[in-house]
Amino acid sequence: MDKKEQIDTLVDLLVRADNEGFVRNLLEDLFTYKEIGDLASRLNVALLLDNGVSYSEIEKQTGASATTIARVSKCLNHGAGGYQEAIRILKDKSVE
C-alpha cells in the first residue's frame, strides 16, 4: 500500500469504530502518551479559540505556545474543516 492507501485505511477504521474502548486502545498503540496529549491539547485550543478566548488567555490556561495557538487558529480558519466539524460534533453532544 502507498501512503495514501495507508491513510485511507486508518480513516476507514476510525469511521467504523463504534467502541470507545477500542479507540482509546488504538490511540495508545499508535501514539505515545505525550502525542495523544498533544492532539487533545490542540483540540482544546481550537475549542477555546472558537469561544473567543484570546491567545494570551489560552497560553495561561493551557500552556500551549503562541506558535501552536497560531497554527491551530490558521487551521481553524483556513484548514480542511476538521476542527470546525469536531467542534460542531462536540457542541451537538453537549446539547443532548
TrEMBL record:
InterPro entries: Trp_repress, Trp_repressor/repl_initiator, TrpR-like_sf, YecD_YerC
GO terms for MF: DNA-binding transcription factor activity; sequence-specific DNA binding
Cross-referenced SUPFAM superfamilies: TrpR-like
PANTHER family on file: LMO1763 PROTEIN, TRPR-LIKE PROTEIN YERC_YECD
Protein name: YerC/YecD family TrpR-related protein
Organism: Phoenicibacter congonensis
